[in-house]
C-alpha cells in the first residue's frame, strides 16, 4: 500500500509532557487504532498528525497526498509557512471528533458540505453517495440537535470524508455510544476511509474491539519511571 504519512524521530508535547515518536507510517487504505492509558498522549499525537500543533523536533515529517507533490512539513514549520500548513489541513485531512463536532446552526447537508465550501468546491454527487452509504439521506435537511447520537456520528463521518482526504483522524469516536453502535461506527469509518483511499487513525480505549475489526494496533507507552513522557516505538 502506498504511504500517506510518514514521521521519524519526532518529539512533541505540552509544557511538562513529552511525546517521542520513533517512527510512524500510515498507508493509504489502512486502518490503525491508537491506544494507551488515559494521559498517555493519544490526543496530543492526533493533534500533531493533524498539523494542529508543531513538533519541538523532527527528523522527518512527510505527507504524500494522492494528487499533489509530497509535502515536507518539517521544512514548512521551520520556514514558518503557516498558510501552507493550514491549506494542507483543509485539503488533505478529515477529522471526526468524539461528540461529532457538528455546527448546530447548519443543517446536515451544510455540515457535510463544509469542508468542500472551505476549499471552494462542490460535489453534489459525492454528498448524495455518502449519505446513501451512511444511511442519512433522509436527514439532510434536519438540524443536528434533532438527531440521535448515532445519526450525528454518521453525519460527522460523512463530513470527514466528503472532500476525499488522504488522512482521516478520529479521537475516540465511539466513547459516547453504546457497544453495538461502537462496532457500527468503527466499521463504517474503516470501510468509508478505505473506499476513499485514505489512511485512518483512530484513538480508542478499546483496542480489542478495533483488533477484531481488522485495525492494526499502535500503543503509546508511558515512561515506566513515572516521568511525564510517552513513547511510540518504531
Ligand atoms: N492543554 C494542555 N496543557 C498542558 N498539558 C496538557 C494539555 N493537554 C494535555 N496535557 C497533558 O499531556 C499529556 C497527554 O494528554 P493527552 O490528552 O494527549 O492524553 P490522552 O492519551 O489523549 O488521554 P485520554 O485517554 O484521557 O483522552 C497528559 O499528561 C496531560 O496532562
Ligand atoms: Mg484524549
Please render the helix and strand layout as text.
Layout: E1 3-14, E2 17-27, E3 31-35, H1 42-49, E4 57-63, E5 71-72, H2 73-78, H3 82-92, E6 93-96, H4 108-118, H5 124-133, H6 149-161, E7 167-171, H7 179-195, E8 199-203, H8 207-212, E9 216-219, E10 221-222, E11 229-232
Parallel strand pairs: 2-11, 3-8, 3-9, 6-7, 7-8
Antiparallel strand pairs: 1-2, 1-4, 4-5, 10-11
Helix pairs in contact: 4-6, 6-7
Written account of the structure:
The chain is of the alpha/beta class and 234 residues long. 35% of the residues lie in helices and 26% in strands. It has 8 helices and 11 strands. α4 packs parallel to α6 and α6 packs parallel to α7. It is globular, with a radius of gyration of 17 Å. The model has no long low-confidence stretch (mean pLDDT 92).
Rg is 17 Å
Helix content: 25-40%
Low-confidence stretches: none
CATH fold-level name:
Rossmann fold
Average pLDDT works out at 92
CATH superfamily: P-loop containing nucleotide triphosphate hydrolases
Instruction: Categorize the overall geometry.
Output: globular
Ligands bound here?
adenosine-5'-triphosphate, magnesium ion
CATH architecture type: 3-Layer(aba) Sandwich
Structural class: alpha/beta
CATH class, named Alpha Beta
The tally of domains stands at 1
Amino acid at each position: 500500500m502506498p504511504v500517506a504519512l510518514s514521521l521519524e524521530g519526532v518529539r512533541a508535547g505540552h509544557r511538562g509532557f513529552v511525546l517521542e515518536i520513533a517512527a510512524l507510517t500510515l498507508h493509504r487504505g489502512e486502518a490503525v487504532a491508537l491506544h494507551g492509558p488515559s494521559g498517555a498522549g493519544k490526543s496530543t499525537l492526533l493533534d500533531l498528525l493533524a498539523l494542529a500543533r508543531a513538533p519541538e523536533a523532527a527528523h522527518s515529517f512527510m505527507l504524500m497526498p494522492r494528487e499533489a507533490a509530497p509535502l515536507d512539513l518539517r521544512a514548512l514549520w521551520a520556514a514558518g509557512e503557516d498558510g501552507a500548513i493550514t491549506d494542507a489541513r483543509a485539503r488533505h485531512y478529515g477529522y471526526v471528533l468524539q461528540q461529532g463536532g457538528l455546527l448546530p446552526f447548519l443543517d446536515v447537508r451544510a455540515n457535510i458540505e463544509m469542508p468542500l465550501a472551505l476549499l471552494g468546491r462542490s460535489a453534489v454527487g459525492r454528498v448524495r453517495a455518502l449519505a446513501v452509504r451512511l444511511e442519512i439521506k433522509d436527514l439532510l435537511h434536519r438540524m443536528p440537535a434533532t438527531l440521535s447520537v448515532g445519526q450525528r456520528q454518521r453525519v460527522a463521518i460523512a463530513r470527514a470524508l466528503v472532500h476525499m482526504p488522504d488522512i482521516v483522524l478520529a479521537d475516540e469516536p465511539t466513547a459516547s455510544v453504546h457497544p453495538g453502535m461502537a462496532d457500527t461506527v468503527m466499521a463504517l469509518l474503516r470501510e468509508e476511509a478505505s473506499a476513499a483511499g485514505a489512511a485512518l487513525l483512530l484513538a480508542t480505549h478499546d483496542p480489542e474491539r478495533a483488533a477484531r475489526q481488522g485495525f492494526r494496533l499502535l500503543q503509546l507507552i508511558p515512561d515506566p519511571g513515572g516521568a511525564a513522557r510517552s513513547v511510540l516505538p518504531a
